[in-house]
Amino acid sequence: MMTFKRIFSIALMTFCAHILTAQLQVAHVFGDNMVLQREKAVKVWGQASPKEAISVQFNGQTVSGKADKSGKWMVELQPMTHGGPFEMTVAGKKEKLQLKNILIGDVWIGSGQSNMEWPLFNTKTGKESIANSSNKNIRLFTVEKAMAANPNADVTTNGWFVSNPESTPNFSAVAYHFGKQINQDLDIPIGLIHSSWGGTDIETWMSWEALSSVDGFGNLNKEDLVYRQENSGKMRAAFQAAIAEEPGMKQNWFKLSAKEYQSWETIEMPKIWESTKIGNEDGIIWFAKSFELNKEQVKDATLSLGPIDDIDDTYINGQLVGHMEDWSVARKYNVSKTVLKEGVNWLVIRVTDNTGGGGIYGKPSDLNLNTGVVSIDLSGKWYYKTAVLSSAFGNPSSGPNDFPTCLYNAMIAPITDLSIKGVIWYQGENNTRNPKQYQELFPGMIMDWREQFNQEFPFIWVQLANFMAPAAQPKESGWAELREAQSMTLALPNTGQAVIIDIGEANDIHPRNKKDVGYRLAMAAEKVAYGKDIVYSGPTFTGMELDGNKAVLSFSNTGSGLKVKDKYGYVKGFAIAGADGKFVWAKAQLKDNKVVVWSSQVNEPKAVRYAWGDNPDDANLYNKEGLPASPFRIDQ
């Protein structure tokens, strides 16, 4: 007679054997609590034994198919109206899967970098939003972070969850607020698929075919990139060991003689070193520049260097005067007069670049030493010497930005057979180094995704928020140019943009107000994707006429009229230039639902800019529906 322990052991072994031999699977994007796209044919797929017959029953439909020789199967359900909950039965020759609590509604993908990834709990209204997040008609799905050298067959995920205080805290705040607004306004079940990775370039989210067709990427060697990613662990370890033992610090390159510095190679600064003869390198490079002071000029000073990517250790005459590890922040260091000396001084900067672009990359006007008596221009000819370069170690991959297409391959490609309503996108901060290139990359990615999904779905994005210190005077801005590239992409059909230059934070690249971001995305989606007759955008520049020394600007998307958010009714954020192209701050006023712009310094206006800067914090033109005007310039 068998004991209970013996019976239990046999049962457990039988169960484990069944699990090990089980073949029938659905792709991870399908599961309990999911949402299927309404009013479109819906593909369902998975794995089974090779050549195995498969049937799927759902909402009164039964469809059949057969697995191919690799075991992949796919069937297609006919379009359905929204509703539910329903159950789905997937049956093979011997196995059967039961998926429960399924809704039919609209499926939106939310993707991009950290501002899309930013979790609900860490937002301005997080506590309240989470407490009120119970909604059985909103479902949440997160694609786990992964990289792949070639398109993966499936994503990694914990599955679908019903929206409630247990499932929402770590979900994308932007996607959640967007989905909640759409569900509230349209009363349609919403499925949100969140697939993002902080700090990533747009290149990582494009397919190989699309990226290699963009100017500047045609010479990428796919085999080399694949090899580097697959062997990155060993190469990275050797690279890091070399960095730890780099010769510059051991040999005190921060306090060499003038003759030794002058034996180094020369380079024009500032400039991202990828655009110079240094090339596409990570690692450590030392830069040196001399400057002269007379006795009266040796005073406490301010050293300005602009932004440096990624890390700098800055020395003057052998003494450390500054260190920072944030590529997005302009360096400004206080220098004691005791560090300076009469005659020739040497400025030496050790730059460590971990990934992506590297170097001292601001504008020439960013580089100077100001003693109060004199301002010394530090741009132009510098000396440099390489300490450790990634190419010597096979250019090991340290993250997704080192391998273009890797996030598309792992986090988007596996779900491109899924029927969806559209995509919301929040990315661009990482491409502000080369905003002009974004003019081709961004629309290229949108067209690429539409082709890969074989759906001309709506694509709605967030324009970059205001960030960093406001400019004292009008000047060029990579962030403004990136916003311009985003606005230019509206030329693609079925697209929309949420402008948020009024809710950023100067000292934080991750503004905590995600509720308004989601709301503005939803307004654009309700217009573009759902055809609602609503005011979905703030004022958009359409044309300029001259009236003497004044520029009269016209706008579309004015809603019920233009509005200024200012106690005294002053319109701010405008700059104006004449034929010399030199911009100055302008005065402006509303007149007949137009904006009149002028300056006593410009007799014949040739160009106007609005909200043109990293952080145009004073821009205050809106429509009466409360949506901000989009930044623009008319000199390009």
Average pLDDT, rounded to a whole number, is 93
Structural class: alpha+beta
Give a quick account of the main beta sheet: strands, pairing sense, barrel closure.
11 strands, mixed
Distance between the termini: 90 Å
Count of alpha/pi helices: 13
Rg value: 29 Å
3D shape: globular
Instruction: Report the portion of residues in β strands.
Output: 25-35%
Poorly predicted parts: 1-8, 10-21
Helical content stands at 10-25%
* Record field, number of beta strands: 35
Explained architecture:
This protein has 636 residues and is an alpha+beta fold. It has 13 helices and 35 strands. The strands form seven sheets. Strands 2, 4, 5, 7, 8, 9, 10, 11, 23, 24 and 25 form an eleven-stranded mixed β-sheet that branches. The radius of gyration is 29 Å and the shape is globular. The termini are far apart.
